[in-house]
Design goal:
By secondary structure, this protein is α/β, with parallel strands linked by helices. The chain has five domains: about 210 residues, Up-down Bundle (Rhomboid-like fold); about 90 residues, no CATH class; about 90 residues, Serine Threonine Protein Phosphatase 5, Tetratricopeptide repeat, CATH 1.25.40; about 90 residues; about 130 residues, PH-domain like. About 60% of the residues lie in helices and about 10% in strands. The protein contains 26 helices and twelve strands. Strands 4, 8, 9, 10, 11 and 12 form a six-stranded mixed beta sheet that branches. A three-stranded antiparallel beta sheet has the order 1-2-3. It is elongated, with a radius of gyration of 36 Å. The two termini are about 65 Å apart.
Length: about 650
Amino acid sequence: MLIPLGHEKTSVRRLPWVTFVVMGLCLLTFLFTHPGEQSRMEHAYEDLGEAFEYFGEHPYLEMDPRLEDVLTQEFGSEGATSLIQMMRQSGPMPPDNQDLLQREQETLDGLVDAFSSTVDDSPLRILGVVPADISLPTFISYQFAHVGWGHLLGNLFILFLAGPFIEDVWGRPLYAAFYLTAGIVAALMFVARYPAFDGPLVGASGAIAGVMGAFLVRYWNTKIKFFYWIFFFMVGTFEAPAWLMLPLWFLKELTFAQAMDTVAPGEGGGGVAFWAHVWGFVFGVAVAVAIAYFRIEERWINRSIESKVTLVENTAIEEAAKLAEGGDRDSAKTALMRELGTQPENVDAAVLLWNLCFQDGDVSSSMPHMLSAIRRAARKGDGQFVTTHWLEVLDSGHEVDIDPALGARIAEMLRNESRIDPATVTVDMAARRVDASTPAGVVLRLARLAVELGSEQAAALAAAALADPDLPPEARDELEPIGSDFVSSEDGEGTSEDTEESEVDEPIVHSVVARSVIPRRLDGQTLEVELDGKRHAIDLATVQVIAVCGITRAAEKPVVLVDLLLDSPWGDRPNLRVVRMTSNTFDPRQLVGGDDPMVAFQVLLDRLFEVSEAVPLPDPDAARGKPFRSFSTVDAYEKEVLDIG
């Protein structure tokens, strides 16, 4: 037994939607047809058994050609003829009464008709290609029908191994047309080989054989991993290149096809459509050779795909990983640095470079790339990536110069995961970079974090925030006593009574102070909104949290609610200041441009998160509409997402 497990190609540039759709259609078709097919075939075999039993009791009757076909498929033409002759010779003589003889013949014909009707109404026969009864639509439908679970899962597994990679390099339209055409060609050649065959041809294997042929040409040197099992005691795996294994598979199919034609001529391969596999593979090889010869990928396909890439092809990562595994770590690092020089957003390259340098004890060359990757992850709200790799940055012992805005965002993520010590260290590191050019909103966020975490930089950060003449009055009222409290505690002026009271923390019950506004203009880091007919400017750096959800109101059109929280729900401020916007009160195209309002709304959300670096709620995906979380009322949203009450 030889089973393919996978191959060394592991990445594609875009999600292989055509392959996934084909697999889904095959599965749905099977789930729709298989239960009824099993029951129908059981009835058909019962009818067939009754017909043969009746003929055995009345062998002098004329045998319907349909019964002869069944015997021929089972025993071959000579075997079927010999069996019928033996039954006639050993059976009773026909009755003298012609009326009785006619009734017996009608009974046999009726049993055969019942069997034939059950078979003709079979879903597989309706969807499959029947060479003796051609129907053009079945040349498409047969590719999605399968006989059993083994037939289905085997085909889908092979398609999953090869299909996404051909779809990736040929593009979705060409790949879809190629896949269906390969299936049609395979069926046409099967029909040409067995024109009188009366059974249905079903299954995706002809089209998949075409994909395998294309894979051979396009990825001829790719190593494929196989599992082998011989005589119950020889078990293991091995790797071999596509140029060796796929032609061997083709030769096996060709040999079996010719052998079956010799053993049982005209019977469609004895249950396996070997010739469909052969011609599907040949078609795939021919198309792939033509595409390579005329350089169709380079001239037309690549340019179109690259403009729509959603996943990064990490060939450089694979090569660097192989170098590292082989012990040539310096060459691996050089290759990764070269990749990051041309593709600075390749997060996988940054992570692998960081891991190699971290293991070698010198992260200086990889630190800028890791900080860049952490910044992008923070903007996307990927807290797990940020905290995991930032803790490694801290453990490296390397002196890090971190931007205050990024430091505030990382510290908030660490605080949310109850990692108090590293969050405090991060605030202290960010505080060293605070100067007159640091946005007031960032300073305010750092000051609040410092107070909450007990950082030694709290007083200095509070003083820096208070130095801003445009600091909102409520923020000034909040920071002035905090700053004086920290100064007093450092001077040792606190009383024992104060200390005892500070040890008793009352649980904070939050409430929302929401102001419904209409956004009018987004300019850099400032969002201009209209409130009660007046314009106000919001510094997005002061926004700590952005919460987004859908509100499904009874008998009204649903709306998307966007809350900009100037206070975090997990902080110690009881009244959360919220700037609230709803999708039914403004046109996002006036803020970010574009023609499609839905696309413009998505762009607006991305811009708000990118500029503010705020925490996304309920979670990073839901806050960006992938999809939005829905609530029946605003109160329900505030209770669950903002933890109000």
